Amino acid sequence: MCGIVGYIGEQQAAPVLLDGLAKLEYRGYDSAGIAVYNGHEIEMVKSVGRLKVLSELTHDGTTLVGKSGIGHTRWATHGSPSNDNAHPHYNKDGSIVVVHNGIIENYMKIRKMLQNKGYEFNSDTDTEVVAHLLDYYYTGSPLSTIIKVLQRIEGSYALGIMFKEFPEQVFAVRKDSPLIVGHTKDGNILASDVPAVLKYTRSVYFIENYEIVCLEKDKMTFYNIDEDELEKEPTTIEWDVAAAEKGGYEHYMLKEMYEQPKAVKDTIYPSDSRIVDGRVVIKELSMSDEDIKNIKKIYIVACGSAYHAGVTGKYVIEGLTRIPVEVDLASEFRYRSPIYEDNSIVIIISQSGETADSLAALRDAREHGVRVLGIVNVVGSSIAREADSVMYTWAGPEIAVATTKAYSAQLIALYLLGMNFAQVRNTITEDKMSSLIKDLAKLPDQIEMLLASKEKVQRFANRYIAAQNVFFIGRGIDYAISLEASLKLKEISYIHSEAYAAGELKHGTISLIEEGTLVSAVLTQEHLYKKTISNMVEVRSRGAFVLAVTTEGNTEVEKAADYVIYIPQTNEYFTNSLAIIPLQLFGYYVAVGKGCDVDKPRNLAKSVTVE
Ligand code: F6R
Asked: Measured over all CA atoms, what is the biggest interatomic distance in the chain, rounded to whole angstroms?
């Protein structure tokens, strides 16, 4: 969603702002703008569309001269993408300017109040009320003015603020939207997310709710809402700059698919390996054996692909431990007054660690005294910080909007968790555990092998760029794989696709099958082969073209399929990690074939910080 940046220092601000915004492009946006103090006033340039337009308008930032500024990429929520609605927003004489990520929920009420007092609005946005409120409450002290405004606004926000009267200072504050700051070699920088600052620093401060930071050329000062100064410790970001760059690949998504063997390996064997002497050890769980033995129920809560990983997690954890697992979409869970059973735990899965609904679900669970474990990729993100314990997926920065490597790493975290719980609860034999550990260790090479046969998938995908509808079917874990395969295809290629539990098709959906409709069947669970083959026969006899993704050796499937992709043998619980690879490639190549903007699909944002 929206991205904010700010800079003050020895360099010209505009190029730094444009560069930072470019690193936040992946979050999704439809307009952008920057504001720079030019020695006399705060000068602003905004544009609809890609950042390229803003760069052209400002000659790569050179026409905006000044050493302090703020910038923004906007993903429209209130009001269409337009110059007026683009940020920065400003008060009546342009002496106070604001960029904002999040939503001011009570903006209508404030807008009316301000209009009654004679304030005129130039945009349809919720953000503009902040600029006018800052004007309305202005005391001559930026800090006390900002604090007054915080007491009026509700919702989520990360704000970057400049006052013309205080050109040597840039302010920022947040509530429920991410915000980081860091020292550069010649100044200070603020941003919504790590990639924007990586080029300048690896040492960042995560701003907490209601903390205010004042950036000056040579120092940063943190305050709480009572104007007390705060001491904060920086966090070192281990990612290197190259990890967040495209590195010669045509798209981030392709690069990230190719990083999956490493993401999987790093999640199994981080510096503090999770496999030690034939056992699964997850130190960061901070749960005693007694705690684990007492678990009566697990709730897995997440959104999108992370939810799909959770669906697989349910099958794996229930299968290995016999602990009942409920999987929920965070946007539903948070409003359904979930009935938390005694001795239950909640697992929140999130790549960004900032997804608004997942964060709200986490808070609900904690308010009810339920232990929360976060499975999170972005170190230091809100979910990582607010969960009782966090198990990181070591996938590194994921830039493409459509997740691939973070999803693969989430699967591994869930397998490890299931294995660890099974070991503690004695629901697994030693032989079975060592065979699982062996199969887990093989996954990175097996994924690599599947990636190596990408041309075959590409040739097949090229036949489907004109498809109107695609169906993905499977049973059990194969259904979970289908959910993710379907999302991958539709979100980047804009082809309508649906995932169905294979046995459910005939209860309505089969009426959509016509001559030539592509149905992709996933068959990796041996005990379900025959059942899914019957469903393939049903759709094929109604004209469907059937693609099967199945395990080597299951040649029986060939009689019911038109095209077969084989994946290597692995344990039945781990098949998702392999079967998803050709299906990710399929979605990717269909989208590339159609000429879609694969890394930044329309209407989508990488980090969904509004509900
Ligand atoms: C799809 C995708 C999304 C995310 C979802 C949750 O490719 O990436 O469906 O999985 O928005 O995001 P996180 O994991 O950041 O909570």
From this structure: 79
CA-proximal residue: ligand 1, atom 9 (nearest): 304
The CATH class of 455-594 is: alpha beta
Render 110-158 in DSSP notation, one character per residue: HHHHHHHTT----SS-STHHHHHHHHHT--S-HHHHHHHHHHH--EEEE
Q: Given this chain, do its domains 3-237 and 244-452 carry the same CATH topology?
A: no
Q: Which atom of ligand 1 is nearest to the CA of 401?
A: 8
Strand partners, 469: 496
Instruction: Provide CB contacts within 8 A for 269, sequence distance 6+.
Output: 275
Contact 327, 310 (CB under 8 A): yes
Q: What is the pLDDT of residue 166?
A: 97
Listed residue (313, 181, 216) closest to 8, CA to CA: 216
Neighbours of 167 (CB within 10 A): 18
What is the number of residues in the chain?
Answer: 611
Q: Is the CB of 256 under 6 A from ligand 1?
A: no
- On the CB side of 77, how many CA atoms lie within 13 Å of its CA? 21
Over the chain (611 residues), the average pLDDT of each successive run of 10 is: 93 97 85 96 94 94 96 89 94 97 94 97 95 97 97 95 97 93 96 90 93 97 97 84 76 96 97 94 94 97 98 98 98 95 97 94 97 94 93 94 97 98 97 97 98 94 93 98 98 97 93 95 97 96 96 96 97 98 98 93 81 75
Residue bearing the CA closest to ligand 1, atom 1: 402
Ligand 1 atom closest to residue 383's alpha carbon, by position in its atom list = 16
Nearest to 450 by CA among 499, 404, 401: 404
Q: What is the pLDDT of residue 242?
A: 66
The CATH number of 244-452, from 1.10.3430.10, 3.90.740.10, 3.40.50.970, 3.40.50.10490, is: 3.40.50.10490
Compute the 3-state secondary structure of the chain and give helix, strand, coil in percent, each to the nearest 5: 40, 25, 35
Decide whether any atom of ligand 1 lies within 6 Å of the 491 Cβ.
Answer: yes
Q: Can you tell me the distance from the alpha carbon of 158 to that of 399, in angstroms, rounded to the nearest whole number?
A: 20
Give the Cα separation of 32 and 88 in Å (integer): 9
What's the CA-to-centroid distance between 300 and ligand 1, angstroms? 15
**Token pair belonging to 568:** 């290597």
Task: Report the pLDDT value the prediction gives residue 75, as an integer from 0 to 100.
Answer: 86
Give pLDDT, residue 248. Answer: 81
Q: Identify the active-site residue in 2, 214, 303, 596.
A: 2
For the domain 3-237, what is the CATH code? 3.60.20.10
User: Which strands form 371-376's sheet, in the order they lie side by side?
Assistant: 325-329, 297-302, 344-350, 371-376, 389-392
Q: What was the pLDDT predicted at 89?
A: 97
Sorted by where each begins, the domain ranges of the chain are: 3-237, 244-452, 455-594
